[in-house]
Amino acid sequence: MDVDMKFFTGNIGHRFYLGPMTDTWEAWAAMSAGGRLQKHTVQVGALGPEQVEIRVESCGICHSDVSMLDNDWGMSAYPLVAGHEVVGVIESAGAAVKGVKVGDRVGLGWFAGSCLSCQPCMSGRHQLCGSSEQTIVGRHGGFAERVRAHWSWAIPLPAALDPRKAGPLFCGGITVFAPILDGGVKPTDRVGVIGIGGLGHLALQFLDKWGCHVTAFTSSPAKAEEALALGADAVLDSRDASAMQQAAGSFDFILSTVNVPLDWNAYLNLLAPDGTLHFVGAVLEPVAVPAFSLIGGRKKVTGSPLGSPATVRKMLDFCARHGIAAQTEDFAMSEVNAALDHLRAGKARYRLVLHQD
Questions:
Q1: Can you give the pTM of this predicted structure?
Q2: Whether the bond into 78 is cis, omega within 30 of 0
Q3: Which residue of 50, 127, 141, 310 has the smallest Cβ count within 10 Å?
Q4: What is the 3-state secondary structure (H, E, C) of 217-255?
Q5: Residue 291, helix vs strand vs coil
Q6: ω before 20 within 30° of 0 (cis)?
Q7: How far is residue 135's CA from residue 83's CA, in Å, rounded to a whole number?
């Protein structure tokens, strides 16, 4: 098929390829909450001057995709094209794009843009921007031929990382890496991870290479050996009240990756003075925390969304240096419904990745 192409020469002499002059691409979209995904033609406007268009090579599936597809959070709009763990090649670039160029292999996560002028952005905390743009909220995500983003959130992929496995790092990976870095977790700390799944299996690897003593909390005995192989120094059965009591006061930092309500006071009891219980799992129910559980030991309950572009780059460098990668199962993009069924059934070990076919 013949297509028209257009080039633009910027005011500092850089030549930008603006790509095929089409305004559509093919995607897999849900037409209603909980509906099966079907082939859908996406209509797009002109590429913005600071945007890049990425040809999607692969895209991880995150539980947040399921939440958006099912409208669990009440902010989904249909047709909805999910997918926010993208790895692909920049195919087109606006005239004001900086730092990346056509032909670069990049990754894109939950965020696709931020204002770059507010106080959080100006202080390097772009993920806290009040005007941030999410890749699958009110726009089209990565279960598609292409996806667009502001250049600042299109992060170059180090050559040492396998692009077929790297997609989950841009959401699942940075979600658990950012609180380790931003929360000041020290190599001498004793740290616990609640939930050994898509997020937790990456957290174990990060914390092990960070130098911490790491305990995996799981209610699934079958995951104990896997947790140890991933870097845990110990495994604690969260249903064993006696074992939980014996561990009281021994953790500096506990990272919760689950999205279901638990006995949070039991975990606060595990914290040492000045310890932190940190949430990255999106628990929809209110978290009941007795004040006296915090006051006596000056304990904290915190949470965080992903990380800034700079933190993503640091995470990728850390992964390349230490050989950290998600454990993935591969599906063709056309098998997206089968992949979602696999995830909904709780069978994923531990991240699913769709590849263009």
A1: 0.92
A2: no
A3: 310
A4: EECCHHHHHHHHHHCCCEEEECCCHHHHHHCCCCEEEEE
A5: helix
A6: no
A7: 8
When computed from its CA atoms, the radius of gyration of the chain, rounded to whole angstroms, is: 21
Both tokens of 256, joined, read: 């919760």
Tokens representing 17 are 């390829």
Q: Which of 300, 203, 287 is nearest to 251 (CA)?
A: 300
> Secondary structure of the chain: what % helix, strand, coil (to 5)?
30, 30, 45
Residues 6+ apart with CB under 8 A from 178: 127, 304, 306, 307, 308, 311, 315
Of 37, 9, 64, which is closest to residue 352 (Cα–Cα)? 64
- Angle, nearest 10°, between helix axes 309-322 and 200-210? 70
DSSP letter string, 293-348 = HHHTTT-EEEE-----HHHHHHHHHHHHHHT----EEEEEGGGHHHHHHHHHTT--
DSSP 8-state secondary structure symbol assigned to residue 208: H
